[in-house]
Write a structure and sequence with these properties.
Blueprint lengths: L6 H4 L6 H11 L15 H39 L1 E6 L7 H13 L4 E6 L2 H6 L2 H4 L12 E7 L7 H11 L3 E4 L2 H43 L1 H9 L4 H41 L3 H10 L5 H34 L1
Antiparallel strand pairs: 1-3, 1-4, 2-3
Helix pairs in contact: 3-8, 3-10, 3-12, 4-7, 8-12, 10-12
Length: about 325
């Protein structure tokens, strides 16, 4: 007598793919999803890195240039502020050499004077050679004689009293304390700092706009995924944090590239300055533009701009994502 096999043993039931997912909670093996919401290697991401790199490079150049201008102006002001000059003009009926000696005597006896250097006729003539050229007969020209007066750093003299004494005994002498030049140098440094700040603000605005457009493009591309995550219970802060982390990395990469290029450029300029030190071209450039170095403070400022660009990129993306998610609600 034949036996009837159970129906279950004769029917080969094929398990569906989702059966493993249904049984996964029981086994404690939920499938892990390693794909980020925002793709890492997208074209928009690489374009944003390039934009941030360019903006950071421009900001670094601006900061370094401003620091060099301010440093050069400070050095010029310090050098000029430590001395004054006296011009003794040749006047008909007066002995120029006697007037020069008298002016030097009056100035040397005033309080706050560290030293007096009288320029000879030949030395005074060489001061105008850059404008008139060499090889000219300057004997017939009324070239004034120069007196350079060194000042004590702690107690400057009373220039008003000194001017009155010179006017009484040497009418052809004129004292110049260089206050106008020092004031112009300070104005130039202030204008350079204001211009640098304006450029930095423009760079930040361009970076904000670029990050905003890139974030909106990324959200438009991944909108179905964001809506699914949003409807299944993902909070706005979770979605925003994914975009913030993504754009923070992009900002750091772009900022590091741009800031690194700026640091390399200033390092090369400083190395060239050291190489040209002692030459005629190097001395002229040093006299006009200063030492061409931004120092440790300048390099730290560029590194700070790299971090600032990354933070601006991350915060701008998070703000844009939060506004977009509110529209989905």
């Amino acid at each position: 007598m034949s036996t009837i096999e159970p129906l279950d043993s004769r029917i080969n039931i094929q398990a569906e793919p989702w059966d493993d997912l249904e049984a996964a909670p029981l086994r404690g093996h939920w499938p892990r999803v390693g794909t980020a919401i925002v793709p890492k290697g997208s074209i928009s991401g690489r374009s944003l890195i390039a934009v941030v790199a360019i903006m950071t490079f421009l900001a670094g150049l601006t900061a370094g240039g401003v620091m060099m201008v301010v440093s050069a102006a400070s050095d010029w002001s310090s050098d000029v502020g430590r001395e004054v000059t006296i011009q003794v003009r040749p006047v008909a009926g007066r002995d120029l050499d006697a007037d020069v000696r008298k002016a030097a005597e009056i100035t040397g006896g005033a309080p706050g004077i560290a030293g007096v250097q009288v320029y000879s006729r030949e030395e005074s003539a060489r001061l105008v050679e850059p404008w008139l050229g060499s090889g000219l007969n300057l004997n017939d020209l009324p070239i004034p004689r120069m007196i350079v007066v060194k000042l004590w750093s702690g107690a400057p003299p009373d220039f008003g009293t000194l001017r009155k004494a010179l006017a009484a005994q040497v009418p052809s002498a004129t004292l110049d304390d260089h206050r106008r030049w020092i004031g112009r140098m300070h104005d130039m440094a202030s204008a350079a700092a204001a211009s640098g700040l304006a450029v930095l603000v423009l760079v930040l605005i361009v970076t904000l706009l670029s990050v905003t457009f890139a974030t909106r493009g990324a959200m438009a591309t991944n909108r179905p995924i964001i809506e699914v995550l949003h409807y299944v219970g993902a909070t706005d802060s979770f979605v925003a944090s994914q975009f913030q982390r993504h754009f923070l990395v992009l900002g750091l990469k772009g900022g590091a590239i741009g800031g690194g290029l700026a640091i390399v450029l200033f390092g090369a300029i400083q190395g060239m300055n050291v190489w040209l030190n002692g030459t005629a071209a190097g001395d002229e450039a040093m006299a006009l533009f200063g030492s061409f170095t931004i120092g440790a403070t300048g390099y730290l400022a560029i590194l700070g701009q790299v971090i600032l660009m990354a933070l601006v990129t991350a915060l701008a993306s998070r703000t844009t994502v939060n506004r977009t998610l509110k529209s989905i609600d």
